[in-house]
Design a protein that fits this description.
Elements: H1 3-12, E1 22-26, E2 34-40, E3 46-51, E4 55-56, E5 59-63, H2 67-82, E6 90-94, E7 99-103, E8 109-110, H3 111-116, H4 124-136, H5 146-155, H6 159-168, H7 188-196, H8 199-214, E9 218-220, E10 229-231, E11 236-238, E12 245-247, H9 250-270, H10 274-306, H11 317-342, H12 348-351, H13 356-375, H14 383-403
Antiparallel strand pairs: 1-2, 2-3, 3-7, 4-5, 6-7, 8-10, 9-12, 10-11
Helix pairs in contact: 4-10, 9-10, 9-11, 9-13, 10-11, 10-14, 11-13, 13-14
């Protein structure tokens, strides 16, 4: 569809009264789909229409099933059941057009933009950890009837989008894939030496990749970065779960943590007032630690309240399980940091840093941290360990910079 088609479609589907004066604009800034805001000039009422084709916007080389739109629609419905108030309302799905209509969240900001404006979001940690636990714990074998879960695994099989993740997150950033990797040119030689040339790192990435491909732990979002979250100082809404499938819980948690670290690097490189910069960095460090620690606490509470499996009630079983999830989250934090700097799909937190030296330093700091998160993920069991790794990488990069 084009914007005029979206108007005709909205009228045909009866989303607005017959006398509505509709206007439409294409607002999608993602890599895959087309997103239209349709608004009635008379009433001010608006909604979003999202459509997916057989190729991704980022490249025609990515041929992907339009069934991802059905998956996204059903996931958003599920989110409204499991975590009410933390996802947009959805109205209707059209299998023929591979499109669905949902609530317009234009009163909120994309979280990545809000963080780049250095806004504090006082409720985000509580909101996102509630969302993570409600949508992840309650789709595990611990909490679900096994037959129901297995039926859902089949319904949410998502091979095309999983392949994108397997390539862009787990493989290409660590294998010098010159065809699609896109490192910042001044950093290319450093990346070749520090990332491509590290055999131990590649071995640990391989372990994480096999886990992603084989572990149907819970129904994960699959792309939960700060571009997939709308926020303001009071609300949080999660969008874009088209990558959803049954995979490792740590993939969602690690993505949230890594993208807060991109915001941390951006603030450190772009905020000129020292007092304001230090204050905002401290808030982000608290948010990073808070996501890990509040997730852990809420996950354990849900387990002790609602675990169905009798073996789950054993001493230490819940704690062992969540420890492993946090360790997995650390590994994914490293993967996400690396792939957004080296791979095809960058983040504006980093690419918008206009000073070349500051961008170079920000990238190298995050890549140093990424290696530790992957190689030493087993020692990351609480939020303070995540923050410590980030700050240590920053100090190491400062020392390396002085030696040059």
């Amino acid at each position: 569809m084009q914007p005029d088609d979206a108007i005709a479609y909205a009228k045909e589907r009866g989303f607005f009264p017959a006398d509505a004066e509709l206007e439409s604009e294409e607002i999608g800034d993602g890599n895959i789909n087309y997103v239209f805001r349709v608004r009635d000039r008379r009433s001010g009422r608006s909604l979003i229409i999202k459509q997916g084709g057989e190729t991704a916007r980022i490249s025609d080389a990515f041929r992907i099933t339009p069934d991802r739109v059905r998956i996204e629609y059903e996931m958003l419905k599920r989110y409204n059941e499991l975590a009410p108030g933390l996802a947009p309302e959805v109205y209707a799905y059209d299998e023929v057009m591979r499109a669905f209509a949902m609530e317009d969240l234009s009163h909120l900001s994309i979280m990545r933009r809000a963080l780049m404006e250095h806004r504090k979001l006082p409720h985000f940690v509580e909101h996102i950890t509630t969302f993570l636990v409600q949508t992840l714990f309650y789709t595990t074998d611990v909490a679900m009837d096994p037959k129901v879960k297995k039926a859902l695994v089949r319904r949410f099989i998502n091979p095309d989008l999983c392949e994108i993740t397997e390539d862009l997150v787990y493989t290409e950033p660590f294998t010098d894939a010159k065809r699609r990797n896109d490192p910042y040119p001044p950093n290319r030689e450093w990346i070749e030496r520090m990332i491509y040339g590290d055999g131990e790192l590649r071995r640990e990435v391989a372990k994480l990749k096999w886990q992603f491909m084989s572990e149907a732990q819970a129904l994960i979002h699959g792309d939960l970065h700060t571009g997939s979250i709308f926020v303001d100082e009071r609300e949080t809404k999660v969008i874009d779960p088209e990558f959803a499938f049954f995979g490792p819980i740590g993939y969602d948690v690690g993505n949230v943590v890594a993208n807060l670290m991109f915001a941390w690097a951006n603030a450190g490189a772009t905020m000129e007032d020292e007092a304001a910069r230090l204050d905002y960095l401290h808030w982000l460090e608290q948010a990073i630690a808070g996501v890990v620690d509040r997730f852990r606490a809420k996950f354990l509470a849900a387990w002790h309240q609602d675990a169905r499996d009798p073996l789950a009630r054993g001493i230490g079983v819940a704690e062992d399980y969540v420890d492993r999830v946090i360790v997995d989250s650390a590994g994914v934090t490293g993967l996400e940091l690396a792939r957004r700097i080296i791979g095809l799909a960058h983040v504006k937190d980093i690419t918008s840093i206009s000073d070349p030296e500051k961008r170079l330093k920000a990238e190298r700091t995050l890549l140093r941290a990424a290696k530790v998160f992957i190689l030493d993920r087993y020692r990351h069991l609480d939020g303070s360990a995540f923050v410590a790794t980030l700050k240590t990488a920053h100090r190491e990069e400062e020392k390396a910079e002085k030696r040059m």
